[in-house]
Amino acid sequence: MSSATAVQPGTAPARPKGRATLLHVIRSEWTKLWSVRSTMWTLIALFLLVVGFGVLISWGTESNLNQMPPEQRATFDATGTSLTGIFFGQLALAVLGAMVITAEYSTGGIRTTLSAVPKRLRMLAAKALVLAVVAWVVGTVVSFVAFFAGQAFLDKANVGTTLSEPGVLRAVMGGGLYLLGSAMFGFALGALLRHTPAAITMVVALLLIVPPFMQLLPGEWGKTVNQWFTANAGSQITFVNPQANSLGPWQGYAVFTAYWVLILAVAAFLLERRDA
Amino acid sequence: MIEVRGLTKRFGDTVAVDDLSFTVQPGLVTGFLGPNGAGKSTTMRMILGLDRPNAGSALVNGKAYSSLSDPLSEVGSLLDAKDVHGGRTARSHLLALAQSNGLPAKRVDEVLELTGISSVAKKRIKGFSLGMSQRLGIAAALLGDPGVLMFDEPVNGLDPEGIQWIRNFMRYLASQNRTVFVSSHLMSEMALTADHLIVIGRGKLMADVSTADFIENSSTNTIRVRSPQADDLARALTGKGFTVTPVDGYLQVAGIECAQVGDLAAEQHLTIHELFEEKASLEEAFMELTKDSVEYHTDAFQPVPTGE
Question: Which residue segments constitute the domains of chain B, with CATH numbers given?
Fold first, then answer.
């Protein structure tokens, strides 16, 4: 290591000229995402959760189907059943989304990052775009795998469905869209809170723990809050048959998206003003 | 060139940087000197646009850092060598930085070579020693081959060989007419590396002076003389208008040359046993300059009295 100063003083250096354009920053964030091990592990966890739970629940449904009352059989959603694992799998992408930004703060890497890209919103936009593309592509792939694996079991009980049935393709594509949204939810909270445990706790509470309890709220207002609440609204896009007391698939998804866009907008506003 | 004008930063009630103004010129190593907590790192963070100043501005080559479109080609900086994600390899860390500014990947290999860490390029950063991390930080600073370089306490925690390497590297960079701005809390370190000094204490400018002048001025010193006829000699010196202080059995006289004391003693037929010039060290001169501005004071160690 000591031979490093074998350089002549006074030599005119050939200057590489670089520009921190959005495209360059996107390339950089792409490299950063894939050069830490946690990314791959999180995506493996996502696959296992979504496909694993999908298969498990489809298999269980197939073997219990003959005990199911006929009225329940009539509204049985084969697509939604095979996509049940998305509810658990969203945790993996939400954590990945939060870590993409909070790890910059916990390691101090944010100061190095912003020294290279002092236009902070450009950095935030590049991170968000890279994460969104990765989450959407991977989310859509696992959604399709879970769908086909689930149908293989449900077909045995003759309740399976195909992509050509009405609403099915939208629901399976919707699985990818929902997972994209959960990644962005984690990212937005991470950018706002700048603290890994805080962001993860918050996103787990908002997407995973609180939503199922919202149906316990009393009265009309309770029903509305339940319908409009994060995952309750967003997950409608993964069902073919509309669930009772819920928003429509696209309406629900729009509400879900509005949440994280709003949080991210506040985070972006603060990013410009706070010390890094 | 770095220009700081009226820069002020407050954290709650604490004024970390107080109306600070100075200019850092190219072709020189400029030392940024001050005790711990004087505001050096905060000033550097504000120059890089990381901390927002409450007042004033910092310009790099005439522009605000946050408005630069090619930041890595204008300014290379190393604030804290540990400000990296330890899970990445050295190479992918540098590659991501290079890509963010559209710099070619071959530049990564060049800076790895230049800083002597090619052999650990594929290792994850969290296993690096402090010395290796410092070299990685310097490699990152050199990626865009910038004309302005800024390092915060780069020799902290390094072994003598690493310190030597950094010193030579700073001098080499300045010899290429780059602006090199280096902070330290050690005067002795800066005396060896810096051509120019900017000294701050409690966020305020204390001195903006060439290292040579600083040394020259802080050597206007005192002489000490020991004589068996100390009282007579003291009277003679006082008679000539000098201030005489008895210290440890010596007489200490300010503003006089040894020769004058010798001549005076000879005139008065006084015996002198010892006569020498007492040079304050640079460290003492620095402490004298900043003594009212250090954040954490300790009382000088007093010998513990023995017996009751």
Answer: 2-210 (3.40.50.300), 222-278 (3.30.70)
